[in-house]
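Model it.
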Amino acid sequence: MAKTSQTTRDSNKEPCRWIQREYIDHKGNKVILGKWVCWGRQFYQPEEFEGYRLQRFPFLEIYSYNPSDALSCVEHQRNEVAHRKRLHAERRGDEDDTILPPFDPYNATRLGDQFMSGFCFLLISRIYLQGYFRDNDHGPGPLWIGFDPSLLFGLKKLPMIKRLSSSPTKLRTFAEWGIAVNPEMIDVTTISLYADASHFAFDYGLYEPLPPSPSQDNLTSQHTREILEQQQTDDIQLEKPEYDLQYVIYVPFLADIEQERTTFLEATARKFTASIILNLSIFKPTVSKTVRFEFRIPDSSSLSYFLSAPPDGFDIGACHEFDTAPGQEMRIRALPMGQRDFCFRPFPHQYFTVILDKPSFTQEPSVLRSAGIQEVARRLAMLAVEENIQGDARTLTREEHREFLSLSLEEYE
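Modeled.
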């Protein structure tokens, strides 16, 4: 697994050499930090455009950690980002910061493209040694993995900037078409590369809050019980054989709890189901939706588990009427496969599941990167279908747009 930062070199200048240093990541694995420099340069001496960076980041950072897939890679990098922030926050004022690993770089967020602020490469074959040859037999290209670097338990509210379909600085887009506010954000993307990625700017998340300590990330039985008991919901009755909403819901925050797992799973199931029904009644006071949620505890709390999770075992989705021919309708189960909240016909899929990240699901964004329980209810019920929403259900308001641009009312007008 490798991270890169592009450095421009002039072939007419003095020859270059590779220099490196080594350190250990948060899991105890060796990391090599190196870059090409001109003869006589020191490891931390800035070159060319590196001079104005807050953190002078070397050309290449290579991890000996060998993840099994892209999601394992993302989990490792999120914890490594948090680990390094803690190391720098705990550094004594008189301590030389060159002995610490540098901050992990982020790809400067540019809304409108598919790259998020966290990024890394995952080498899955030896094709990177062959140069730019799209049709060769050396295996698939390296994966460029984009991801949100924040830890799930440190996320108390999903920032609206991460839910926008386009940058608020695109004034013409806002004025002519509007900017959609999506009910969720994209968590991870992977792109197979054949050539070098270039022309990306970097930042280091220096202005983001310090992530929670490792002890705060680990839920105890007592803490889980307290969180679940704090969330008051009404009892529910489920009697119908066929339900409007049917989903499998995994609860990974219970995977590492050994005692009273069944009790916690039952409490989670009751409270989450009641919360969904309550929020649906707010959206549709005159319509009663029936639900069937099957709650499961995965064998592992790692996201990569879900790449090989067992099949659902029953039809999942939200039942809606769709036109199949002129004058004919058929009840089909629709799924919230896209990021945006609008009406679309179901399309074939291999696997879909709901992941409940943490027990505070009525108070915080707890269904993998959704904005909150209201957005989750709308998405699982696919209300945009019966409301026939063809565009975006929610767009950025003028006041919200002005706040993003940090302008006074007079300046904005």
